[in-house]
Amino acid sequence: MIYWDLFMGFLKVGCFSFGGAYGAIPLIRDVVLSYGWLSEETLTDMIAVSESTPGPIMVNLATYVGSSQAGFLGALIATFAVVLPAFIIILLVMALLKTALKNKYVQAVLQGLKPCIVGIILATGCTMALNYGVLPAFRENGDMRPLILTAGLAFLYFGSRKALKKGLSPIGLILLSACAGFLTYGYV
Fold first, then answer.
1. Which of 54, 69, 72, 88 is deepest in the core (most CB within 10 A)?
2. Is the dihedral of CA 82, 85, 91, 97 positive or negative?
3. Where are the domains of the chain?
4. For the chain, how far is it from start to end, CA to CA, in angstroms?
């Protein structure tokens, strides 16, 4: 039963995730939480780990969730399910690419999807920033560290874009975030 649930859950993620990994995070969150495979906090931690490790976030998360729920076979099934739709779509696109991209209806669909993807990514980023950066400061314990880290990293990112005419590289920002997290939380 768990193998079937992993396959169907991550097949759904693979089928309906448009806009890359960040667009897939809300769908992954919905699937993982609805089956009770991970807690919200563990999922957020795994998103951070998946972002900072090589490979696509969806594949990394599917592999982790599958492994944590059903061992090595579960990891294989979840990973296969999440990449299967993209594999099939790429095969079809390659066969139809020359004519499909010239089609005005295909172009209209692609143009219509762009704002949707931007909105999904923005909503995911805002939700994560609020839940794990801003709101902890206003809860019972009043922990200001997440708010300070979020604001500091945002200031560094946008400040570097203005000062250097280009932003910090994603790798640099991830390493800087990891160091800041270790210095902030490593000694607690």
1. 69
2. negative
3. 2-143
4. 41
